[in-house]
Amino acid sequence: MSKVNYPLIRKVYSWGYHTLVRFLFGLKLSDTQTGLKVFKRDVLLKVLPRLLIKEFAFDIELLAVASHLGFNSIYEAPVNLTMDFSKSTFSPFFLLDKHIRNMLVDTAAVFYRLKILKYYDDSSTRKWIYDEELDMRVNTGELRNE
Question: Cα 26 from chain centroid?
Fold first, then answer.
């Protein structure tokens, strides 16, 4: 239902990435990159402390970890996106484009941590710590203010 006006090559790359993400993480979403994402507070409290990606695959990590932890009710709202691609630095040769390479590397890192290392699991021995600016901590799964 979203209305996004991309050049053909961008549509092909987006389809390819979407297919890769669906295969790697089983996310049954029509679009993981475009649009507004709204979450309930308890989802974010459980998911955000585990995230490591800061740039290229942040959306994928957030959605994949949320899904992995059992938060599967995701509503997709359509968007209307108009972008000027005439000044884009997007390369038609995807392996030469540093942004695409970085996104693929970050996506592979999320897959490795999720499926191989089990880094995001509740059974992990890590204590998930929230950002100090929020003045919150997680201790053995319970939220407390310090």
Answer: 13
Question: 3-state DSSP call for residue 77?
Answer: coil
What is the rounded distance in angstroms from the CA atom of residue 19 to the CA atom of residue 6? 17
Task: Reduce the DSSP state of residue 90 to 3 states and report it.
Answer: coil
Count of the separate structural domains present in the chain: 1
What whole-number distance in Å separates Cα of residue 132 and Cα of residue 146? 10
How many CB atoms neighbour CB 92 within 10 A? 11
Instruction: Tell whether 81 is covered by a domain.
Output: no
Sign of CA dihedral 70, 71, 76, 82: negative
Tokens of 143: 């939220």
Please give the Cα distance from 116 to 95 (Å, whole number).
25
Structural contact between residues 124 and 131, judged by C-beta atoms closer than 8 angstroms: no
Residue numbers of the domain that contains 100: 3-75+90-145
Question: Mean pLDDT lowest for which of 18-27, 31-40, 97-106?
Answer: 31-40
Q: Over 60: is that where the pLDDT of 12 sits?
A: yes
Radius of gyration of the chain (CA): 17
